[in-house]
Amino acid sequence: ALSLHSRYEDTKDAALLDRIEELSKDIIKTAPAGFTEGYRLLGAVHRKRNDPAGAERYYREAADRDDFNYEAQYEMYRMYRDREETAASSFHLEKILRSSPRGLILEKPYHLGLAFLGAGMEDEAVRELTRAQGDTRSADDLAKTRLYLGTAYREKSMFDKAAAEFSTVLALKPNHFKA
Predict the structure, then answer these.
(1) Torsions phi, psi of 151, nearest 5?
(2) Which of 2, 3, 56, 139 is most buried, by the most CB atoms less than 10 A from its CB?
(3) CB 77 within 8 A of CB 47
């Protein structure tokens, strides 16, 4: 099913989607508990067929059954982000960031805050960067944290709070060029 999925990406042959769907259903029936690739592949099939409800159903099944199915978690994040459902998209992004082997450093509030800020999720960025202030070990770390917190406030059009954060950065690091 995975190799057919790759071939579909190259050829866009719609007949391959039927075969991928069939194989994915077989995988679900025969795979051990906890193996969720069949659900994820069915989600991809439905997404490619422009069936968002079907895609969501199968991606959700994969994501709910396996926190470590990053592709399914990402697809859920992306669907909710595109529909501007911030709480739901934030939930799946945070799951990815907290559990991804590639992102173990993202367990720290500072890194989560930066990831949320980069994803345009300013409320979540403010929450994590505020928490991160307690983790700082040096003036440099605190200045970076407060700089990005100020940036998040600026993005939220909370200019007084942003200015206060930038002033704190300058008090800590008078020559900080970004503040």
Answers:
(1) -65, -40
(2) 56
(3) no
Residue type at position 67:
D
| 44 CB burial (10 A radius; 0-12, 13-18, 19+) | buried
- Asked whether the beta carbons of 148 and 130 are under 8 A apart, the reply is no
What is the torsion angle, in degrees rounded to the nearest 10, for the CA atoms of residue 63, residue 69, residue 73 and residue 79?
-80
pLDDT single digits (tens) 130-148: 988 887 777 778 888 899 8
Q: Which residues of 71-85 are buried (b: 16+ CB within 10 A; e: fewer)?
A: bbbbbbbebbbeeee
Indicate the pTM of the whole model.
0.56
Do 90 and 56 touch, CB atoms closer than 8 A? Answer: no
Q: What is the pLDDT of residues 19-62, one digit of tens each?
A: 889 988 998 999 888 888 899 999 999 998 999 999 999 999 99
